[in-house]
UniProtKB/TrEMBL annotation, chain A:
This is NADH-quinone oxidoreductase subunit B. Gene3D superfamilies: 3.40.50.12280. GO terms for biological process: aerobic respiration; electron transport coupled proton transport. Its EC number is 7.1.1.-. The gene is nuoB. Residues 46-155 form the NADH:ubiquinone oxidoreductase-like 20kDa subunit domain. NDH-1 is composed of 14 different subunits. Subunits NuoB, C, D, E, F, and G constitute the peripheral sector of the complex. It is a peripheral membrane protein.
Automatic annotation (TrEMBL), chain B:
It catalyses: a quinone + NADH + 5 H(+)(in) = a quinol + NAD(+) + 4 H(+)(out). It is found in: Cell membrane. Residues 141-411 form the NADH-quinone oxidoreductase subunit D domain. This is NADH-quinone oxidoreductase subunit D. The keyword Cytoplasm does not apply. Belongs to the complex I 49 kDa subunit family. It holds the Pfam family Complex1_49kDa. NDH-1 is composed of 14 different subunits. Subunits NuoB, C, D, E, F, and G constitute the peripheral sector of the complex. PROSITE patterns: COMPLEX1_49K. The keyword Oxidoreductase applies.
UniProtKB/TrEMBL annotation, chain C:
Pfam families: Complex1_30kDa. Coiled coil: none annotated. Belongs to the complex I 30 kDa subunit family. It catalyses: a quinone + NADH + 5 H(+)(in) = a quinol + NAD(+) + 4 H(+)(out). The keyword NAD applies. Residues 33-154 form the NADH:ubiquinone oxidoreductase 30kDa subunit domain. It is an enzyme of class 7 (translocase). Residues 152-172 are annotated as: Disordered. It comes from Flavobacterium luteum. NDH-1 shuttles electrons from NADH, via FMN and iron-sulfur (Fe-S) centers, to quinones in the respiratory chain. The lineage of its organism: Bacteria, Pseudomonadati, Bacteroidota, Flavobacteriia, Flavobacteriales. Residues 152-165 have a biased composition (Basic and acidic residues). GO terms for molecular function: NADH dehydrogenase (ubiquinone) activity; oxidoreductase activity, acting on NAD(P)H; quinone binding. This is NADH-quinone oxidoreductase. Keywords: NAD, Quinone, Translocase, Transport.
Length: 182, 412, 172
């Protein structure tokens, strides 16, 4: 592998000795999760085209461990909502979120998904955080691929530092309950 | 009550009951979409299937209905371009220019030749990017990812040109009443020339990948054909109609922005199947390249990039700070104090998918009284259920892809 | 021989008399009005007449005029196009407060969804339409959003402070 320029992720903090390496489970799990986030692109409109650009050769999201775009919610870790979500679409988005297995994260890409954007109308949901909890918001209409990549990196940071117990904590249950998600 | 008003599941249930086979097998209902990955966009079709074959389909649309027309009634004229961007976001400059031309028609503004040629260049670039996405994604849907990865780089190159012209990549919001907001920089022309040098080679290679590819031919020839009569009855326009053999093109029928100065052919297909649609789009890309080259060669001297209409054209920002007159004009335009005639006009342009029309009704106020967009996707998507009748499920995806239905344009 | 406006006008008035009126050239489009109950007859005539040949329906949409008198509250606008002569016309039919007009979906297949959209936006009833139900909005919706009295913004919004949008007289 001498001629390749692959970047390896640095190991977490820990104690190194001969033949062993001791560290916290949290860090290892976080490291593994953060670098193999399988995205579920929920592309509805313009931002979806920018996501295509992000996936394509020029920006290549695969560099961040998102090589496999998972189109099935069951196997996905990261729901990327790109584009306007109308009120007609809201329940479907929610259903997709409910189908995802824990742990799951959500990125709202673009102004429409974050806040409704310029479409302040009767038919548009004013931000997807009205129906599902969101971890990272990416502004822009549409955001540049660099911004989307930045959003993914921000999420990786969140994932890396997340406690393995968070998903069973009462706070998290409360959050889900506030969205009425079982 | 008409049967069609029932939800498709109930309607299908009756058919299933009637057609129960002796061996116990029965028809089934399949829900395709709205978030099905292969439909890249939000399209729901409830299908009645006999094994792999589609017997009936009922599309549901409106999943990203954003009420463009309602917003347009509440926005001043120059704030409507951002909406047109987001209609067909694969080729937003065409929509932008179409909207400005509608207003220029309303206000009787003559745009200088040079600005018209610049518009032609940017509209043809948009057409290239539109067809590029459609055809490369059609490749992806038939199982060839390479073509997409290869030509998408050139979409990035076009984005760079857009950025040089207006600062944005995808939703360009380009231009003003009477021309452009600024002259094109030398860098823009430089990038354009490099693009014109490099792109044809790549596009030729892309064509070679597909045109004689056995798998691609098997997947597309005779898949989803539509006759010329049917296509016209369903209101097809653009490449999809031309693939059926009708040479209707707004650029030729009603030349706008000096299209009559350029020499180009309107490619037509024969059978209107998926392969023909693919080939027509390919051929149009070559024509677009030729138009851009002609426009660059014929470009008038000088640096005129907008019409001299201070009543409607925003003055440069520096002047607004230092010049009384500019400040007044700026104020009047932004506050909507400019005279707008009471009229009803319709202006068509040839968009990426067909005739994009703007039907504008004004009442003299700062906002349109009514603005209706003729959205080609919306009109021809109604033919989809008929086109996929009898086809295999996997063909339905390919047909949808080759029709290039853009959700933003479909749902308004 | 190009198709002149006067030819269209003469042919129409010959056949339909008082039912077609108000002929005028609006910018580049020749337009006229029809009585709403004659829409199918006129459009069928325009489509099938060997000299007129308006065989393509470009566009169909609705309009709402709340300030007009009660017989001109709504309008349906048809844009037809003759590709042989490259001639476009616009036809307008005014409707009263309970708007209804005959469907042309049996004349032009493409008008099916456009009529559904017009129903969805304005509540204009197209008599005889095979599947007149909402197309863009949710089936549960009861109002017609493109009517002028319907607000653009969702009235149930809570995150907007009216003070910051100049909607209150006092900035308190």
């Amino acid at each position: 592998m001498s001629d390749s320029n692959i970047n390896m992720v640095a190991p977490p903090e820990g104690v190194v000795g001969e033949g062993f390496f001791a560290t916290k489970l949290n860090d290892v799990v976080g490291l593994a999760r953060a670098n193999s986030l399988w995205p579920l692109p929920f592309a509805t409109s313009c931002c979806g085209i920018e996501f295509m650009a992000t996936m394509a050769s020029h920006y290549d999201l695969a560099r961040f461990g998102s090589e496999r775009v998972s189109f099935s919610p069951r196997q996905a870790d990261m729901l990327m909502v790109m584009g306007t979500i109308s009120k007609k679409m809201g329940p479907i988005l929610r259903q997709v979120y409910e189908q995802m297995a824990e742990p799951r994260w959500v990125i709202a890409v673009g102004a429409c998904a974050s806040s409704g954007g310029i479409f302040d109308t009767y038919s548009v949901l004013q931000g997807i955080d009205k129906v599902i909890p969101v971890d990272v918001y990416v502004p822009g209409c549409p955001p540049r691929p660099e911004q989307i990549v930045d959003g993914v990196m921000k999420l990786q940071e969140l994932v890396r530092t997340e406690s393995v117990r968070r998903r069973s904590s009462p706070e998290y249950q409360e959050l889900l309950a506030s969205y009425n998600i079982k | 009550m008409s049967e069609l008003l029932l939800p498709p599941e109930h309607r299908y249930a009756k058919i299933i009951k009637e057609k129960l086979n002796d061996d116990g097998s029965e028809l089934s209902i399949l829900n395709l979409g709205p978030t099905h990955p292969a439909t890249h966009g939000i399209f729901q079709n409830i299908l009645l299937m006999d094994g792999e074959r589609i017997l009936e389909a009922e599309p549901t649309i409106g999943y990203i209905h954003r009420a463009f027309e309602k917003i347009a009634e509440n926005r001043p004229f120059y704030q409507i371009t951002p909406l047109t961007d987001r209609m067909n976001y694969c080729s937003s400059p065409i929509n932008n220019m179409g909207w400005w031309m509608t207003l220029e028609k309303l206000l009787d503004i003559e745009v200088p030749k040079r600005a018209q040629y610049l518009r032609v260049i940017v509209m043809e670039l948009a057409r290239i990017t539109d067809h590029l996405i459609c055809n490369s994604i059609l490749g992806v849907d038939t199982g060839a990812y390479t073509g997409f990865l290869y030509v998408f780089q050139f979409r990035e190159k076009v984005y760079e040109i857009y950025e040089e012209i207006c600062g944005a990549r995808l939703t360009t919001n380009m231009g003003r009443i009477g021309g452009f907001e600024r002259d094109w920089s030398p860098k823009a022309f430089e990038l354009l020339n490099t693009f014109l040098e490099e792109f044809p080679m790549a596009w030729k290679e892309f064509e070679n990948l597909f045109e004689r590819n056995r798998i691609f031919i098997d997947r597309t020839v005779n898949v989803g054909p539509i006759t010329a009569e049917k296509a016209m009855a369903y209101g097809f326009t653009g490449p999809n109609l031309r693939a059926a053999g009708v040479d209707y093109d707004v650029r030729v029928a009603q030349p706008y922005s000096s299209y009559e100065d350029f020499d180009f052919i309107v490619p037509v297909g024969k059978s209107g199947d998926t392969y023909d649609r693919f080939c027509v789009r390919n051929a149009e890309v070559w024509e677009s390249i030729s138009i851009i080259k002609q426009a660059l060669a014929k470009m008038p001297e000088g640096n005129e990039y907008h019409a001299n209409v201070p009543d409607y054209y925003l003055p440069p920002k520096e002047d607004v700070y230092h010049n009384m007159e500019s400040l007044i004009y700026h104020f009047k335009i932004v506050m909507g104090e400019v005279p707008i005639p009471v009229a009803e006009i319709y202006h068509p342009v040839e968009g990426g998918n067909g005739e994009v029309g703007f039907y504008l009704v004004t009442d003299g106020s700062r906002t349109p009284y009514r603005l209706h967009f003729r959205r080609p996707c919306f009109i021809y998507y109604q033919a989809y259920p008929e086109m996929i009748k009898g086809a295999l499920l996997s063909d339905a995806i390919v047909i949808l892809s080759s029709l290039n239905v853009i959700a933003g344009e479909l749902d308004a | 021989m190009a198709l002149e406006n006067s030819d269209i006008q003469n042919k129409l008035t010959e056949t339909f008399g008082e039912n077609v009126f108000n002929f005028q050239q609006e910018k580049d489009i020749f337009s006229f009005e029809i009585k709403s109950d004659k829409n199918t007859a006129v459009i069928l005539f325009l489509k099938n007449d060997p000299t007129l040949q308006f065989h393509f329906l470009t566009d169909l949409c609705g309009l709402h005029y709340p300030d007009n008198d009660e017989n001109h509250q709504f309008a349906v606008v048809y844009h037809l196009h003759n590709w042989y002569e490259n001639k476009r016309i616009k036809i307008k039919a005014y409707l009263n407060e309970t708007p209804s007009i005959k469907t042309i979906s049996n004349i032009f297949l493409s008008s099916n969804w456009m009529e559904r959209e017009t129903w969805d936006f304005y509540g204009i009833d197209f008599i005889g339409h095979p599947q007149l139900k909402r197309i863009l909005n949710m089936d549960e919706m009861i109002s017609f959003p493109m009517r002028k009295e319907f607000p653009m913004e969702d009235s149930g919004r809570t995150d907007k402070d009216d003070r910051f949008f100049g909607r209150t007289t006092t900035n308190l």
